[in-house]
C-alpha cells in the first residue's frame, strides 16, 4: 500500500518521536510512505482570522497529495486531520467555494483531487492494515501490560465529516493495543480533553485538565497511557511534571505514542522509535516488563 503523508508543522519540528516511530513501523506492515514535495501549514492557527484562507491552505495540501497520483493520504496529526477533513467535507458540497479554490490552485498548476481518502494513524492501522495482520507481525508480545488509551478530541469529532473512530465510544485504539497482547482499561474520563487547546491562553487550567486525568488513571492502577496525538502527548508526557504541580499530586505515568508501542512489539530497536525522547518514565516500564 502506497500512501502519501502530510506531517503538519509540529511533528517535524517538535514531536520527533512520533515521526520516527511512524516511519519505522509502517513499512514493516506493508505501508510505503510518500512524502509530499511541497507543503504549508494546514491553516488551523488562523481559523479565527479567515475561514477561506484555512480552506485554501488545506485544499492546497490535498492538491499536493493528488499530484503524487495516490488516492490515500496519511495525516498523523489530530489537529491537521480535523482541518483537512473539514475542508474536504466543505469542498465536496460547496460548489461556489470549490470554484474559488480551484481558480487559486490553478495559478500554481495545481488541481483539487477528485478522489482522496484522508487517513489518521489509528484508522489506517485498524481498518487498512487490520488487527490480524498486526497481531501476526508481533515478535515481542506485550503480555502483562495494563494500559489506558486516550484517542484525543480531534479525530473523533464532529462525526458528520467522517472521523477516524466513533465520537461517543471510540474503540479502535484499544483494539490496536490489544492486538499487541496488552490489556486495556475502560475508564469514565476517557473522552476528557487533555487541555492543550487552552495552554497558550489559560495555562493553569490546561495543566489542571491534564493532571486531573493522569491522577484519575493512576487510581485505576494502569501502568501506562497510549496516545496518537502530538498535542495530547505534549500535555501528558512533556508537561506531566507541571500538570502534577497544578493538581497538587505526584504523578508518574509512562506515556507512549501507539506507534512506539507497536514498534516495541514488532522488535524494532527502542532508540529508533524515539523512546529516549519521551519525558515520562517509559523506559522504566519497558525495563520492568521486558527486561530492556
Q: H/E order of the elements?
A: EHHEHEHHEHEHEHEHHEHH
Main sheet makeup = 4 strands, parallel
Strand content bin: 5-15%
CATH architectural group of the largest domain: 3-Layer(aba) Sandwich
Question: Residue-averaged pLDDT, rounded?
Answer: 97
CATH topology of the largest domain: Rossmann fold
Low-confidence stretches: none
Total discrete domains: 2
Count of beta strands = 8
State the end-to-end CA separation.
32 Å
Helix content: 40-55%
Characterization of this structure:
This protein has 292 residues and is α/β, with parallel strands linked by helices. The chain has two domains: 2-119, Up-down Bundle (Glutathione S-transferase Yfyf (Class Pi), Chain A, domain 2); 139-290, Rossmann fold, CATH 3.40.50.11810. 46% of the residues lie in helices and 10% in strands. It has twelve helices and eight strands. It has helices spanning 10-13, 16-28, 51-67, 78-91, 95-106, 121-137, 172-178, 203-219, 230-238, 240-246, 258-266, 282-290, and strands at residues 2-5, 32-35, 72-74, 117-119, 146-150, 183-184, 224-227, 255-257. The chain has a four-stranded parallel beta sheet, sandwiched between helices. The protein has a four-stranded parallel beta sheet with strand order 6-5-7-8, with helices on both faces. β5 (146-150), α7 (172-178) and β6 (183-184) form a beta-alpha-beta unit. α2 crosses α11 and α3 (51-67) crosses α4 (78-91). The model has no long low-confidence stretch (mean pLDDT 97).
Task: Name some characteristics of this structure.
292 residues; alpha/beta; Glutathione S-transferase Yfyf (Class Pi), Chain A, domain 2; Rossmann fold; 2 domains; four-stranded parallel sheet; 12 helices; globular
